[in-house]
Write a structure and sequence with these properties.
single chain, 323 residues, alpha+beta, four-stranded antiparallel beta sheet, 12 helices, 13 strands, 38% helix
């Protein structure tokens, strides 16, 4: 299905807009397990804002975060911190107390979206489709969990991103090993039924869903290597769905995004089964912005350059000073 390029919303960075934006801090790096990815994303965003003529400073956020931000004398913030500490509401709460507008979702939505278990429980409560799941503990009956979830599961740390700590398991022994690997990253671990079919991601920009991207990898699943290291991962856009199915996928992604209270921008990950029934996996409130990242690919499909995408995200802080 051909994607129209007539929906791109570009914002010329006039001198007036530059003045209104003031000094922008790009917060990146951080201390989470996704630090390396965040460093790449932050550098890309920083260069794009500089190229657009925005007064920008890059801040690799460390333990003394409040002091770092105060010292930079900022007017607003572009958050490019991935994972715990940057994507879970903590840095958003800090910026709220400092009175600094910032990109992306607010405190509560960031915290909720970062929690895969609470997100799935909420979606179940409002009848949005998500794969069956179970919480794992050290004394879990591994055989029973496999039987309950269809024989093959994806084990996930509840509060990690970038597929860190995730493993597929199809036997009691591999499930126990997967749990032990995941619990090293997070005390809360879940097992999710494996949906066998195509994987899609839908980027959200403002109030609209961008064209869906179909993900294909030679790896066992779309893991950290496939996301950031492999040159063989395939990003298919247009994604090959019929117009009706593509519309259905976009609407589901928007519902999932808004149900968690998310705003500004983000990305919704979805699996489809063999009959193209969709299942929600998670919402990312600060998606990657690297050369392998998906939001820039979706934006490009509607005629939006990387610089235009970054400026559009930043402009949301002018429309909503509360963040």
């Amino acid at each position: 299905m051909a994607q129209s390029k007539t929906n791109a919303v570009t914002v010329p960075v006039t001198d007036t807009i530059k003045q209104r934006l003031g000094r922008v801090g790009v917060l990146y790096g951080g201390l989470s397990s996704e630090r390396e990815v965040s460093l790449q994303s932050g550098e890309a965003v920083f260069k794009a804002l500089q190229k657009s003529g925005v007064d920008t400073v890059a801040i690799d956020l460390r333990e003394n975060a409040i002091e770092q931000v105060q010292r930079a004398l900022l007017d607003r913030v572009f958050i490019v911190l991935h994972g715990p500490g940057g994507e879970d509401g903590r840095v958003q709460a800090m910026l709220e107390f400092m009175g600094l507008p910032y990109t992306g979702s607010g405190v509560q939505a960031s915290s909720l979206a970062m929690d895969k278990l609470l997100s799935k429980q909420l979606w179940r409560g409002i009848n949005l489709p998500t794969p069956d799941f179970a919480v794992l503990q050290a004394d879990t009956d591994w055989l029973q969990i496999l039987a309950q979830l269809g024989g093959e599961v994806m084990v996930k740390p509840v509060h990690e991103g970038s597929s860190i700590g995730m493993t597929k398991a199809d036997s009691p022994e591999s499930l126990q090993r997967a749990y032990e690997d995941a619990v090293a990253y997070d005390t809360n671990v879940l097992a999710e039924r494996v949906i066998k079919g195509a994987e899609y991601t839908v980027s959200v920009l403002g109030e609209r869903a961008l064209p869906a991207i179909k993900l294909e990898t030679n790896n066992r699943f779309y893991d950290y290597e496939a996301k950031y290291l492999s040159e063989n991962t395939r990003y298919i856009c247009p994604c090959g769905l019929s117009p009706d199915k593509h519309d259905q996928l976009q609407k589901l992604a928007l519902k999932a995004f808004k149900s968690l209270g998310c705003s500004g921008w983000g990305r919704v990950d979805v699996m489809a089964d063999s009959e193209d029934n969709f299942y929600l996996l998670e919402v990312n409130t600060v998606p990657g912005m690297t050369s392998h990242s998906l939001v820039p690919i979706a934006a490009k499909a509607v005629g939006m350059s990387f610089e235009e995408l970054v400026v559009n995200i930043l402009m949301s802080t002018l429309r909503d000073s509360s963040g």
